[in-house]
């Protein structure tokens, strides 16, 4: 009987020990798993156009205004990513902030064509599946980036232009405005000034004037799921003629995203960016030659384009969260914010 009680006591003791061990191991496993889960990088990078702008031509107040809007756009997009949102949503929301500001050549404040119109182009691309949407030559769409995304997600097409794109916008309940919404006196005066210099055949002014060639806003983002996206929006080139379309809505020229490499948005003299298929070329150099994002972007922007006198720049982010913002002009409105705490907004080369 005593032996029986002794065995029973030992069995009960072992049983209790086993229960304690199970709970301890389970708790340790959870703690270990929590500790081993790495934080996934995410980030956002933007531009508001590149050109031959000189610091001396901007007042302290103007510089502060530009930086405030760039920071507001970054904050908007970053908050989307920080709360687990998609790179596509971050790109769209960021560009909307810039389209709504008269400071930039996109949406409100877009430059004028030769016949006094504001013709808008935009594109967006999803790096997870290479889907893309673009619009060109629209004149009544408040936020062209919204329409570009609708083309990508709600149609079977990649690009829509002009009146057809505007009909599609109405069908998708995208906000339509009177063309006068986009007008600003500063842009109108810039058109008149350029026409005067053109009439006088002042090539020096035409070749170096910021508003004549350059503008555009753009964004590229990486979300916590590892997906990349890019978008670009523009009013094009001041005094452009006869239905001219630049690089922005041409996928692979002004806008490109691929989860295997990077997401990019370009700004500059569009004809050169089209001929060199700039954003796809950067991605291809990464994919086929195993160059880093920085190396590939510098190869294209700082070498190929410079050799051809193609002014401009790109902003980009790769699948690891690395950022690049090269430009071969005197300045580029630009900035980025990443999950490691880095945040930058700049205009000039400093």
What is the CATH top level name of the largest domain?
Alpha Beta
| Domains (count) | 2
Number of helices: 11
User: Which structural class fits the helix and strand makeup?
Assistant: alpha+beta
Which shape, going by the Cα principal axes? globular
As a percent range, the share of strand residues is 15-25%
Cα end-to-end separation: 91 Å
* CATH fold category name of the largest domain: Glutamine Phosphoribosylpyrophosphate, subunit 1, domain 1
Proportion of residues in helical segments: 40-55%
Description:
- The chain has helices at residues 2-36, 60-82, 87-99, 144-154, 162-171, 185-199, 203-208, 210-213, 270-275, 278-289, 293-307; strands spanning 43-51, 120-126, 131-138, 159-161, 217-222, 228-234, 255-257, 262-268, 312-318, 323-324, 331-338, 343-346.
- By secondary structure, it is α+β, with helices and mostly antiparallel strands.
- The protein has 2 domains: 1-37; 43-346, Glutamine Phosphoribosylpyrophosphate, subunit 1, domain 1, CATH 3.60.20.
- Strands 4-3-2-6-5-1-11-12 form an 8-stranded mixed β-sheet. A 4-stranded antiparallel β-sheet has the order 7-8-9-10.
- β2 (120-126) and β3 form a beta hairpin.
- α2 (60-82) packs antiparallel against α3 (87-99) and α10 (278-289) packs across α11.
- Residues 21-26 and 28-37 have low confidence and may be disordered.
Main features:
350 residues, alpha+beta, Glutamine Phosphoribosylpyrophosphate, subunit 1, domain 1, 2 domains, eight-stranded mixed β-sheet, four-stranded antiparallel β-sheet, 11 helices, 12 strands, globular
């Amino acid at each position: 009987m005593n032996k029986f009680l002794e065995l029973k006591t030992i069995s009960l003791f072992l049983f209790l020990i086993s229960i304690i061990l199970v709970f301890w191991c389970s708790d340790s496993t959870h703690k270990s798993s929590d500790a081993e889960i790495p934080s996934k990088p995410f980030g956002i990078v933007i531009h508001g156009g590149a050109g031959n702008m000189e610091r001396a031509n901007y007042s302290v107040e103007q510089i502060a205004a530009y930086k405030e809007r760039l920071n507001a756009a970054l904050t908007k997009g970053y908050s989307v990513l920080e709360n687990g949102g998609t790179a596509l949503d971050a790109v769209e929301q960021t560009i909307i902030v810039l389209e709504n500001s008269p400071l930039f050549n996109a949406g409100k404040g877009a430059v004028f064509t030769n016949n006094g119109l504001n013709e808008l182009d935009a594109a967006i691309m999803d790096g997870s599946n290479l889907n893309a949407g673009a619009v060109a030559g629209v004149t009544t769409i408040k936020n062209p980036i919204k329409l570009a995304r609708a083309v990508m997600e709600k149609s079977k097409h990649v690009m829509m232009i002009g009146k057809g794109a505007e009909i599609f916008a109405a069908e998708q309940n995208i906000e339509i405005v009177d063309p006068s919404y986009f007008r600003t006196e500063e842009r109108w005066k810039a058109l008149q000034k350029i026409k005067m210099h053109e009439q006088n055949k002042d090539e020096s002014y035409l070749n170096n004037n910021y508003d004549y060639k350059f503008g555009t806003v753009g964004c590229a983002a990486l979300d916590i799921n590892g997906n990349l996206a890019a978008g670009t929006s523009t009013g094009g080139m001041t005094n452009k003629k006869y239905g001219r379309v630049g690089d922005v809505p041409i996928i692979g020229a002004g806008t490109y995203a691929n989860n295997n490499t990077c997401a990019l948005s370009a700004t500059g003299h569009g004809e050169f960016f089209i001929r060199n298929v700039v954003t796809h070329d950067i991605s291809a150099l990464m994919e086929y030659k195993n160059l880093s994002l920085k190396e590939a972007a510098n190869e294209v922007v700082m070498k190929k384009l410079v050799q051809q006198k193609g002014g401009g720049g790109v902003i980009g982010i790769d699948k690891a969260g690395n950022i690049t913002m090269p430009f071969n002009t005197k300045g580029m409105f630009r900035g980025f914010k990443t999950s490691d705490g880095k945040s930058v907004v700049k205009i000039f080369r400093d």
